[in-house]
Amino acid sequence: MAKLKPKNTSLTAEALVPKNEQPYPIPENWVWVRLGEISTIKGGKRLPKGHTLIEEETLHPYIRVVDFKNNTIDIEHLKYLEAETQQLISNYTISSDDVYISVAGTIGKVGIIPEVLNGGNLTENAAKIVTTDSIDKYYLLYVLSSDDLQLQISLNTIATTQAKLALYRIGLLYIPLPPLPEQHRIVARIESLFEKLDQAKELVQTALDSFETRKAAILHKAFTGELIGKNEIKHCALSDIVKNIRIGPFGTMLHAEEYIIGGTPVINPKHISNQKIAPQENISISKEKADNLTSYRLAKNDIIIGRRGEMGRTAPITEKEKGWICGTGSMIIRLKDEYCASLYSQILSSQATVTYLETNAVGSTMKNLNEKIVKNISVPMFSEYEQQEIIRILDSLLDKEKTAHELCEVIEKIDLMKKAILAHAFRGKLGTNNPKEESATSLLYEEYSL
Predict the structure, then answer these.
(1) pTM above 0.70?
(2) Would you give the end-to-end CA distance of the chain in angstroms?
(3) pLDDT digits (tens, 9 = 90+) for 206-261
(4) 33 vs 40, 143, 165, CA distance in Å?
(5) How far apart (Å, rounded) are the C-alpha atoms in residues 391 and 212?
(6) Phi, psi (deg, nearest 5) at residue 191
């Protein structure tokens, strides 16, 4: 670990956070410190001009933000440097004794690299935090992962063309610092609790995956007619069973500044998931504005489909969503009266349709759908009676879908529990603190050689 140089300035002025600036109360033998005063922060390095990364494994891994995963490094997809390139940036390496943090693009991803990557070069979009003897690297890792520090990181990020976190601003972050033995106990307690939660999450995810596999098989039987004992199904282009397909309003027709809270919801792709629509209260427009966009109003038995980004996001429009507005990133599919949106919405989100859409979508930066692509989607043709029969059987067979949603909620709760554990940990509320231990202030005096 790095050792701080002796300083002649006041410990209070340099390291400790004034009482009136402390984010929340901590135990009496803890202190609030500025991260830059108990660590050394160094940035990574951009590749020299004319030099590129290679796929072939060498002794010189180049660690990018895309490689940061679950507080460690995804070794499987690493890129490497040739020896000549590494020589030019050899001063910008990282080791398993450091904590890394992303500082550009996706800000605040933190972790520790495995020992096998010691000496690897770090991207310019990240920085390393070299800890001192006053702070456990795993304690620092967890504290930087907490919501409180992630909020500080967000507030210190400068939003320009690309979001960036300046190195000196990392040093300004406020860190709650317990005595060293308490740091070790906190880390052990967090890891013990997280291990139990991860085991529970794995069991829940396995059950959810099993349900999704069964559901996909059932839907396949439905769309091929097997569910109703039909041996042969005719297919047609989607255009044959619709009245109209319309792309949402162009950007010039609906501006971000026209959004209000509590008005008529505007539905974009991010609001569509699992055949349901979840609008945002602040992504809505006034009645007057909605009246100017009447041709983009959703009607009962329409299907709304996201036309950019992730393909296959669809939902049927019910009485509840009638009158809402189709957003710029979505499309309205208005079926002929004899076709049922609740069935055909699922058909349009099937794997076969998603594959077709991904293959035919246009655009390089972000995949987009146009009316022609959507009109040409191949769909099975069912009579009204057959549609109702399929829906009836599906409702019965997929009755366990509620269980699947409950499993998803359990996973979300596990993630929230982890956040709560971290919040308690750095407030001294995990039951591990010993108030009789020497104050963390003594650690700082020792580091500062005061």
Answers:
(1) no
(2) 19
(3) 877 777 788 788 888 889 889 888 888 999 999 999 999 999 998 789 888 899 99
(4) 14, 13, 19
(5) 18
(6) -65, -35
- Cβ atoms within 10 Å, residue 304: 28
**Which residues, in sequence order, are bridge partners of residue 303?**
316, 333
Could you tell me the CA-to-CA distances from 53 to 67, 105, 123, 177, 219 in Å, in that order? 14, 20, 11, 39, 44
Q: Which residue has the tokens 């971000």?
A: 256
What are the start-end ranges of the H helices in 16-96?
A: 83-88
Which helix (H) or strand (E) covers residue 314, if one does? strand 314-316
Q: Let me know: does 243 contact 263? Beta carbons within 8 Å.
A: no
E strands, 146-290, in order: 174-177, 235-237, 242-247, 264-267, 272-273, 276-277, 284-285
Rounded to whole angstroms, how far apart are CA atoms 392 and 386?
10
Domains located in the chain, CATH noted: 34-173 (3.90.220.20), 234-381 (3.90.220.20)
DSSP 59: S
